[in-house]
Design a protein that fits this description.
The complex is a heterodimer of chains A (282) and B (397). Chain A has 12 helices and 2 strands; from the N terminus they run H-E-E-H-H-H-H-H-H-H-H-H-H-H. By secondary structure, chain A is mainly alpha-helical. Chain A has 2 domains: 44 residues, no CATH class; 228 residues, MetI-like (MetI-like fold, Orthogonal Bundle). In chain A, strand 1 and strand 2 form a beta hairpin. In chain A, helix 3 crosses helix 7. The N and C termini of chain A lie far apart (49 Å). In chain A, 33% of the residues are buried. Chain B has 2 domains: 187 residues, D-Maltodextrin-Binding Protein, domain 2, CATH 3.40.190.10; 135 residues, D-Maltodextrin-Binding Protein, domain 2 (3-Layer(aba) Sandwich), CATH 3.40.190. In chain B, 43% of the residues lie in helices and 15% in strands. Chain B is built from 14 helices and 11 strands. In chain B, helix 5 packs across helix 6. The N and C termini of chain B lie far apart (78 Å). The interface between A and B is large, with 32 and 39 residues.
Chain lengths: 282, 397
């Protein structure tokens, strides 16, 4: 009896997964390797090899990785200390600060990016601040820096929150024990706090890196001259001159992007799992 | 292609939603009304026109739908069951629809005001006998320039390849329009099917790329208005709007020729209400209605007797109402069939190339991330070995 209820309750989930995950994945794979002609359906690897050997596509993929790595590193440099400070604050101020941190996320991400667009064009505030600081002149929009700013701005909270959560979970007695045993602040941080926040860091990095690699609207809006793999797929399916609802090239690209994402995820997972001992890898 | 002022669009969108809602609510009540499906560009009709139409023809219940590119219009037309009665596609898309036998013929003798259609718009390449389409609005493609930043006259496409304007040029992120500029500069027709000519035009645009600050459609208007760029490829209606915002801007149709685009009303074969469709087209051609429309959109009206109602200032404006000399060499786009692929390939090659190192793999990035991955792997293995050794020491006690 119990088993039947379990199955029945699970049905919506199964339908959901099949309709919106399994079927689309199969469709992408299908359109990438099968050609539909009036004579029938036949297998072809033309699109896969086309995509793999196209220099422009390779460069777009490299650039996506490049932007994602830089954005993740910048997020980490800003986000880790921030999470640390946040965790150290007295409770009421901490709650207030975390609301402030989350507040922009209540607004749609596309609208935020549009807003950023006007901040970094020629008369934008951020452009002016940057040129006042001596980081070159002219507008930021249309530069690589614009993409990095956009990605960091949009994804920073996703990195801070898991780190913050794992910091909050640290048993304070461990820190005290380390201090009692004569560790100075740096040693305590390196031997206790840092290793215990590694799982949070890894999930934070995943949550920044993956959307950065696949993002298309940020590069599209902030630097339309740069090509990323996400933008390429969008171009193939939607906005391109020869865009089609069923794009074999677009499907092949999506397929490779998926492999890329799965690879990244599995690497991050490995780090996470291999880390029960506490930051041995990092 | 025909996107205009954004704020206007939002306003009219709200109006439209209200309208559609109103139509739905009233429509459910009385089933005796015949439905009339109109499919037009977003923000491309003066909002009061539909009310006026329904007031005059209470037997019709207008259902108004929007599209934003000719291609999405086409997809929706062929893939849904909506019985659209009137469409307003652009020239080359009309040619395609005619070719695929998707349009009803229109008897223009039943349209009272048809005689006033501007001569230069009749017999266009996409519908040589004017059997299928009735012009809605039209315009040209040309160069918008900032008088303060450009030296010498702007009357030729050559100016878009002039190295002294490096970083000062905005181009359109639109295949046919940018390719048209290059093809005409090379002395070809903008509808050429010659693969060599198309390739050469693509090459020419690649040479131009280092000079171009940005490719865009709607998003290049604002920077141009702000006076930060010297030259910009755009449509006449948008040019007019930009010129109203910044008096330093001017618009020119290059002497070598350019594109004239015409958006026309057609009746697709999906229509189940031919009489209603004809009534709507006839209504849109009435001088007072056509006036409302051209006044709202700032695109040129195809009707010469409507021009008499438009502000004199506008009539004399060569952007709104180009002289016959200016449009003498202009040409409408036609549907290119399979050749479209060649255009798209050339365009994609241009858009994706990263300028100087085009055609080359970005080796520095390959080395950087290749070596980083290697270091990562080595570290991972090392730590695993270390862990094993530690385990051994620990558990052997």
């Amino acid at each position: 009896m119990k088993k039947i209820t379990k199955i029945l309750l699970g049905i919506p989930l199964y339908i959901w997964l099949i309709l919106f995950t399994v079927v689309p994945l199969l469709m992408i794979f299908f359109y990438a390797v099968f050609e539909i002609t009036p004579e029938g359906i036949h297998f072809t690897t033309v699109h896969l090899t086309d995509v793999l050997t196209n220099v422009d596509y390779i460069n777009a993929t490299l650039r996506s990785i490049h932007y994602a790595v830089i954005s993740t590193v910048v997020c980490l440099l800003i986000g880790y200390p921030l999470a640390y400070i946040l965790a150290k604050l007295p409770e009421r101020r901490r709650n207030f600060m975390s609301v402030l941190l989350l507040l922009p996320m209540w607004m749609n991400f596309l609208i935020r990016t549009y807003a950023l667009m006007s901040l970094i064009d020629e008369d934008g505030v951020i452009t002016k601040i940057f040129s006042a600081m001596g980081f070159g002149s002219g507008m930021l929009k249309g530069t690589d820096a614009a993409i990095i700013i956009g990605m960091v701005y949009n994804f920073l909270p996703f990195l801070i929150l898991p780190i913050y959560t794992s910091m909050m979970k640290i048993d304070h007695r461990l820190v005290e024990a380390a201090q009692d045993l004569g560790g100075n602040a740096f040693v305590v941080f390196r031997k206790v706090i840092f290793p215990l926040t590694v799982p949070g860091m890894v999930s934070g990095i995943t949550m920044v890196f993956v959307p950065c690699v696949t993002s298309f609207i940020i590069p599209q809006l902030l630097n339309n001259n740069a090509w990323t793999i996400g933008k390429l797929i969008e171009y193939k399916f939607v906005s391109g001159a020869d865009a089609e609802a069923v794009s074999p090239d677009g499907s092949a690209l999506s397929f490779f992007l998926m492999i890329l994402v799965f690879l990244c995820m599995s690497v991050f997972n490995k780090i996470d799992q291999g880390d029960e001992e506490g930051g041995a890898l990092l | 292609m025909l996107k205009q002022m954004n704020f206007r669009r939002i306003g009219s969108l709200a109006l439209l939603i209200l309208l559609v809602l109103g139509v739905c609510l009233t429509g459910t009540g009385c089933s005796s009304k015949q439905k009339l499906y109109i499919f037009n560009w977003g923000d491309y009709i003066a909002p009061e026109i539909l009310d006026l139409f329904e007031a005059e023809y209470p037997q019709y219940d207008v259902i108004y739908d929007n599209f934003d590119t000719n291609e999405t219009m086409y997809q929706k037309l062929v893939s849904t069951n909506t019985p659209y009665d009137v469409l307003v596609p652009s020239d080359y898309m009309i040619a395609r629809l005619i070719q695929e036998d998707r349009l009803h013929k229109i008897d223009t003798s039943k349209i009272a005001n048809y005689a006033y259609i501007r001569e230069s718009l009749k017999g266009a390449a996409f519908d040589p006998n004017d059997e299928y389409s009735v012009p809605y609005l039209w315009g040209t493609l040309g160069i918008v320039y900032n008088k303060k930043l450009v030296k010498g006259p702007v009357d030729s496409w050559d100016v878009l390849w002039d190295p002294q304007y490096k970083g000062n040029i905005l181009m359109m992120d639109s295949v046919r329009d940018s390719m048209a500029a290059a093809l005409i500069k090379l002395g070809h027709s903008l509808n050429t099917k010659d693969p060599e000519a198309i390739k050469a035009a693509g090459k020419l645009l690649e040479q131009q790329k280092p000079l171009v600050a940005q490719y865009g459609v709607d998003d290049i208007k604002e920077p141009m208005i702000n006076g930060n760029y010297a030259l910009c490829l755009h449509y006449s209606g948008d040019a007019l709007w930009m010129m109203q915002q910044n008096p330093d801007l001017e618009y020119a149709i290059p002497k070598e020729g350019s594109n004239v685009w015409i958006d026309s009303m057609v009746i697709p074969k999906t229509s189940k209400n031919y009489d209603g469709a004809m009534a709507f087209i006839e209504f849109m051609c009435r001088p007072e209605i056509a006036f409302l429309n051209t006044d709202y959109n700032a695109y040129s009206t195809p009707l010469t007797n409507v021009l008499e109602m438009v502000d004199e200032e506008m009539v004399n404006n060569h952007v709104y109402n180009p002289s016959n000399e200016e449009t003498a060499k202009t040409e409408a786009y036609v549907h290119l069939g399979d050749t479209t692929e060649l255009y798209n390939t050339a365009w994609e090659k241009l858009r994706l190339s990263t300028g100087a190192e085009s055609g080359q793999i970005d080796w520095p990035l390959v080395w950087l991330y290749g070596s980083l991955t290697l270091i990562g792997i080595v570290l991972a293995i090392a730590s695993k070995i270390r862990k094993k050794r530690l385990d051994k020491i620990r558990y052997s006690d």
